[in-house]
Amino acid sequence: MACFANFILIPMDAETQTDHLKAYGITYWVLNKQHKVQWLLNYRGGAFLMADDTDIRRECTIRGVSYEIISNSDAASILDEIASPSQNMEAVILEKAPKVAVYSPKGNLPWDDAVTMVLTYAEIPYTTIYDEEVLNDELLLYDWLHLHHEDFTGQYGKFYGHYRAAAWYIEDKKNAEALASKLGYSKVSEEKLAVALKIRDYVIGGGFMFAMCSATDSFDIALSAEGVDICEPMFDGDPSEANYQSKIDYSKTFAFTNFTLERNPSVYEFSSIDMTRKRRVPMELDYFSLMEFSAKWDPVPTMLCQNHTALVKGFMGQTTSYDREEIKPTVLIMGENRSNGEARYIHGVKGKGFFTFYGGHDPEDYQHKVGDPKTELELHPNSPGYRLILNNVLFPAAKKKHQKT
Predict the structure, then answer these.
(1) Cα(first)–Cα(last) distance of the chain, in Å?
(2) In angstroms, rounded to a whole number, what is the distance separating the alpha carbons of residues 353 and 204?
(3) Residue 2, in any domain of the structure
(4) At 355, is the secondary structure helix, strand, or coil?
(5) Alpha carbons 191 and 378: distance in angstroms, whole number
(6) What is the DSSP string of 19-38?
(7) Measured between alpha carbons, how far is 24 from 170 in angstroms, rounded to an integer?
(8) Full DSSP string of 276-307
(9) What residues pair up with 110 in beta bridges, in sequence order?
(10) d(CA 188, CA 230)
(11) Mean pLDDT by 10 residues, the chain (405 residues)
(12) Domain membership flag for residue 404
């Protein structure tokens, strides 16, 4: 190897990177081979720097990822620039490829989940787990957990109003009831609460949790309603508790507070947290802005916001965005549509772990509908909205290990 070409730089700016999404896959692949990578926060869109290797060059070429060969002295001058107190930049060392789990029902359809689509496209390996694995404490095997579009309240996604006669809805309800019974629960809501509590404990113990769409608010609602029946008879066979709103315990949630639950079983909405029905934003003006943080003092949110644009195209979901008034003050808002008073992308600490909630269903499918064809990410290799997901996947790689002294 020539001494003047000792580093590979994978740029992540808009001008030079041909496939931002696969660049994360390359970085993961390098980490998986026990090599370290430096994530250059706010430098050329969040570039990656690694030791030169012919295998990495070849892999970049095969996957269509732009890269540059730079000398030792070039790399040193880049790192000097980043280290300067006058620059809002930081170099974070990524140490180890995180083990990734996706919480998702077996046999989910291609349109079900943006995260599984982007992990597959970026060629980042993951394991699919569901309720049995969670309740058997298998979360401990993983560094990072994604919650797919899920309903942890036992109300079957509040699809009752539009889809109660649909074959897939009837089948899903039957399967959920059978699984709950198999696992020793008399109600789906009780079984889903047990799963939510296990996930809560995983995060408190040091896990990284990422969730999108209805998995975000329904998770918090389930925690807040522990021991309270909020399900109507068509969901669990008996009436909900009278005045259940007054029994909600907001201290148990991760992110949300002072929300009001939607009592009507025919309304496709869980609570006042979600802004979908309150929005007055035309599609062509629907963008949200990423917040700027101090890379040297706040490397975590800076990492999670790395992008080649500060303005990200909005997209809808069952849970599209969050009412700012109902977000706990301890939770960081990282992406927002300020004019509409809504947060799109939020992050917080729980115990020793972290969680990130991202509103909407699919960053490249504005108004995703049941049965829509899946998004072809080959058509969106530079998607800023999908980049935010992959920032979260790499985030645990930078976790600093406690020194054993």
Answers:
(1) 38
(2) 5
(3) no
(4) strand
(5) 38
(6) -HHHHHHHHHHHHHTT--EE
(7) 39
(8) GGG----GGG-EEEEPP--TTT-HHHHHHT--
(9) none
(10) 12
(11) 72 97 98 96 98 96 97 96 97 96 78 86 96 97 92 90 88 92 96 97 97 94 96 92 95 97 89 88 89 96 97 90 96 94 96 96 77 80 96 89 36
(12) no
249 and 327 part of one domain: yes
> Are 159 and 165 contacting, i.e. CB atoms less than 8 angstroms apart?
no
Which tokens belong to 69? 């060969």
Helix axes 188-204, 167-182, angle to 10 degrees: 70
The conformation of residue 271, written as its DSSP 8-state character, comes to B
The token pair that represents 175 in the structure block: 């399967």
**SS3 call for 160:** helix
Q: Are 307 and 100 in contact (CB under 8 A)?
A: no
Rounded to 5°, angle at Cα 81 from 75 and 82: 90
- The CA distances from residue 33 to 30, 49, 369, in Å, are 5, 15, 40
Q: Are 264 and 157 spatial neighbours (Cβ–Cβ below 8 Å)?
A: no
Whether 86 and 123 share a structural domain: no
Does residue 69 share a domain with residue 112?
Answer: no
Would the pTM count as exceeding 0.90? yes
Does any domain span residue 197? yes
Q: Could you tell me the CATH number of the domain that includes residue 65?
A: 3.30.70
For residue 211, give the nearest of 131, 288, 108, 317 by alpha carbon. Answer: 317
User: How far is Cα 267 from Cα 270, in angstroms, rounded to an integer?
Assistant: 8
Residue with tokens 């965005």: 321
For 374-388, give one letter per residue: b (16+ CB within 10 A) or e.
bbebeebbbbbbbbb
Please tell me the distance from the alpha carbon of residue 123 to that of residue 254, in angstroms, as a whole number. Answer: 31
Instruction: Give the model's pLDDT for residue 277.
Output: 85
Question: Which residues span the domain enclosing 179?
Answer: 100-398
Strand partners, 383: none
What CA–CA distance (Å, rounded) separates 76 from 78? 5
d(CA 81, CA 79): 5
Neighbours of 227 (CB within 10 A): 9
Q: How many contiguous H segments (helices) and E segments (strands) does the chain have? A: 12, 15
Reduce the DSSP state of residue 313 to 3 states and report it: strand
DSSP E strands in 44-109: the ranges are 47-51, 68-70, 90-94, 100-103
